[in-house]
Amino acid sequence: MKKVVWGNILCNDPIAKDVYKMQIQSSEMGPVKAGQFVNIYLEDKSMLLPRPLSICDAEEDSITIVYRIAGKGTRELSAYQAMNQIRVSTPLGNGYFIEGTALGGQIDDYSGKTVVVAGGGIGVPPMVLLARRLKEKGAEVLAAVGFQEEPFLIEELKQYCREVHVATDRGTCGFHGNAVQMIKEKRIDADEYFSCGPKVMLKALSDFCTEKRIHCQVSLEERMGCGYGACVGCTCKIKVKTNQGMEIQQKGVCKHGPVFFGEEVVWDE
Ligand SMILES: Cc1cc2nc3c(=O)[nH]c(=O)nc-3n(C[C@H](O)[C@H](O)[C@H](O)COP(=O)(O)OP(=O)(O)OC[C@H]3O[C@@H](n4cnc5c(N)ncnc54)[C@H](O)[C@@H]3O)c2cc1C
Ligand code: FES
């Protein structure tokens, strides 16, 4: 059940150009799954809608978010200081399917498996907690992360990943190109791929995995309104198996996602 709580900002520091890392402490946050996000409520009441941000890492009573200044809301956020208080939702969405069953199979044993976490730009933050959880489940984790120009969260990923491959669009650092081009050209092979980033990148990874007949889970960062299923502001088309066969249904990304299997998503619209 969604709850909005007050949290204490422990730090809010720049880590790259226009990119900030904020740690929020709250004893009411509850358990966090990799791939979940929180809604951040801003002080400026002209911004009625909360801003959704992925959980980058979590401890027992705190979460870390990493955000890029995109507009008015994230600019306001960047001005908050340690010791300020902030209104934040408890974790939202379903996160990555790394435990229990999905697509008819048991998926919580990753021992002996190699997985790739692939992030692009502001899709990199949720890869940190995901890599951590996959490593805890026995996986050999490789990261393939792409940035426009300046990489961030590399040291955090190195804590959980055997290899961290970096790509930049402008070739300023690492591989010249995007994360999916790098995966293909450097042959960064895995038993399963997990991703978050721009839709074009997610589609490219999903096509690549479909060709190879391996699973890929993608986190769709659609524009959102309420963030918890009340406004239908974030729907996307998802293929669903029913008794009548395969159907295409409109699903709210905030409630049914943000993570889906690549093969479930209707990409071409
Ligand atoms: C589930 C989810 C997780 C997210 N996680 C992160 C994260 O970890 N770090 C991060 O920096 N951002 C993340 N985002 C995007 C973030 O929510 C937006 O950048 C933010 O809401 C913009 O608010 P603003 O008031 O600063 O900008 P606005 O003034 O609202 O918008 C500024 C610009 O950003 C674009 N924009 C707004 N929302 C989105 C979106 N969802 N996707 C793409 N473009 C958008 C607008 O079209 C506009 O061009 C996430 C979004 C979703 C839905
Ligand atoms: S954002 Fe309101 S239903 Fe998803």
From TrEMBL:
List cofactor names only. Answer: FAD; [2Fe-2S] cluster
Q: Name the positions where FAD binds.
A: 51-54, 66-68, 73-74
UniProt xrefs under InterPro entries: Cyt_c3_hydrogenase_gsu (IPR012165), Dihydroorotate_DH_ele_sf (IPR037117), Dihydroorotate_DH_Fe-S-bd (IPR019480), FAD-bd_FR_type (IPR017927), FNR_nucleotide-bd (IPR039261), PyrK_electron_transfer (IPR050353), Riboflavin_synthase-like_b-brl (IPR017938)
Q: Which organism is it from?
A: Aminipila luticellarii
Every FAD-binding FR-type domain range:
2-98
Tell whether Iron-sulfur is among the UniProt keywords. Answer: yes
Stored PANTHER family: DIHYDROOROTATE DEHYDROGENASE B (NAD(+)), ELECTRON TRANSFER SUBUNIT, DIHYDROOROTATE DEHYDROGENASE B (NAD(+)), ELECTRON TRANSFER SUBUNIT-RELATED
Does this UniProt record's set of keywords contain Iron-sulfur?
yes
Q: Which GO terms describe its molecular function?
A: 2 iron, 2 sulfur cluster binding; flavin adenine dinucleotide binding; metal ion binding; oxidoreductase activity
Cross-referenced Pfam families, in alphabetical order? DHODB_Fe-S_bind (PF10418)
Q: Which GO terms describe its biological process?
A: pyrimidine nucleotide biosynthetic process
Q: Which UniProt keywords apply?
A: 2Fe-2S, Electron transport, FAD, Flavoprotein, Iron, Iron-sulfur, Metal-binding, Transport
Question: What family does the entry list?
Answer: Belongs to the PyrK family.
Q: What name is this protein filed under?
A: Dihydroorotate dehydrogenase electron transfer subunit
> Where does this protein hold [2Fe-2S] cluster?
226, 231, 234, 254
